[in-house]
Amino acid sequence: MNDIKYFLLCLVTLAIVGCNSIQHQLVTQCPSGTLNLPDCPPEDAVDDDTINEIYERRSWVPPSKLEVDPIILGEQAQIPVNSSRIKVIGPSHEDAMRSLATKIWLIDHAQHTIDITYYIFKTDLVGYAILGALCNAVERGVDVRIMVDSIGSLSPGHSALRAVETCTENAGFVRNTNGQITTKKARAQVVVFNAITKFQFNRRSHDKLLVIDGSFPAKAVVMTGGRNISLDYYGIKKDGSPDLDVFRDLEILSLSGEQSSNEKHTVGMVSEIYYSLLFSHTGNRRITPYEASDEFDKGKYQNRYISHRIKAQKSLATIKAFPEIEKQLNSMPDYMNQGFEDAQVRLSHQLSNLTNKAVTTNVVENLERNPNSILYLLSKVLVDLKAAGITSGSLQIVSPYLFSGQYFDEEGTLIYDGAEETLEWLNENPDLKLEVITNSVLTSDNFFTQAIIDMGMAPRFLLTPELQKVWLASTKEGEFNPDIVESEEWKQLINHPQIFFYQTGRLDSDILGGDQHYGKLHAKFIYGEEVGFVGTSNFDYRSNLYNNEMGFFYQGRNVSNDLATVFEQLKATSYRWGTPEWLEMRKKVMESDSSKASPARKQRSIYKTVRALGLEYLL
To answer: By its UniProt entry, which InterPro entries does this protein fall under (predicted)?
Structure first.
């Protein structure tokens, strides 16, 4: 019952009602001897059992028709460890543009299916270009599913997304593994996650996932990480000129590995099944284009969508014509055939966050409900390391909004303190080292979370309780007081031999009159010598308690080496928390005329207000 095969069987069951009606409609529309009616396949189309099963499994089913809860399936599944080949797409300006080129190229070269979901899907130049590529895919016979979060991708009517489904007027028919046209016509199914009409404000899909040909191991590609669909992530402005102040992010590409032929469910299949569970969540809403209402509409759907489709194709052509993107696209065949590292991977998710109750007081119980969760598996990795007697080495964490949780029961008693647990672990293992890179007041796009990091998290790890109070009291008493920050006690504490907190941005930033652009850190990954995690979680309260998140745990020394290269590059653009250079950078930000000055000066009052109102769990 808990084998991953159960996923497939249940999803086919979920889809069967809707698919039967589709199949019946197809039969009645295409009587023997007719070839030119709408939706009719060519006369030589193949009725392929494998394609039929995949097609049914991918079909949207209204929540009222669901016989099982997809979230429970996700919790109970025995998700396999898969053989994979991994490539890291890092935070450099070049990699940001390469990421966009990769997405477009993968969509352009998909042969059977595409599943795409992003927390933020802006209808800017990048968003429209992706929609244009998806429309083209449908027209050449690729079955497409699109899902966006209702808050992250807030839109009055999602007309641009609805327009993609109008591409089905010219849709091709899905091909089988031999390249033969089958009887299944490609679709574009668009879903809004936890739609506002079924409003659950705090339960969001923070996923960023692209799955190409998931059920076809030799062709499958999975792409995930921190980047959303927006110009803000890809290093270019709408005129094609470089944008050096974008989010600095990281993603991975995952292909089937050398041992995939021995697997019942490969990494692509597992990713597609996971997508189906998220796609089927009971809070979701299927949106469709409005059909033609009068004689002025030129086709099956209203004319309003024509302009969106034209804009999508123009945007796609514009982006492809940008010299750097064109260069990346031309090199993509070589890029997709070299530089991948062998690894074992395991998909992990936070689906339970969508339905958990009493999330801030029942943390332990909720964690144990979902043995497939990111947090559960992270804790298991640490337990396994301890059991194996590993007492030396280092753990590196990169996150834009990293918190170390404190949780209390209903009576207000502290039941878990992440900082205390970590400090105890390090004290027991003096040869272990923890290194963290996060944002600073110079690079953060969220001054609320930055206040928690600078006024709460870092001091809990590094300062004594007495110094924490002084640091938090005021800039005059703490941060700008040489008797404090130049004292031997301060120097000894912030230069902890096992704990290293780095924050991105330096004094030569363009914001401070220099010539360097540090952007905004948005990457999220963890790694050790051979194991790690790359995904969508920020490891803050919202990711840990409310959002669905996903990603891959991996085992592979070479993948860790690639992440280590990125880590060192980021560290070279950072200062260590509490050092004179870091304090000077903060002072310069506070004195600047930038938009970051006021939030930096007010960090202490922001932090105290957030804590007093209990809002830290919602950030």
So the answer is: PLD-like_dom (IPR025202), PLipase_D/transphosphatidylase (IPR001736)
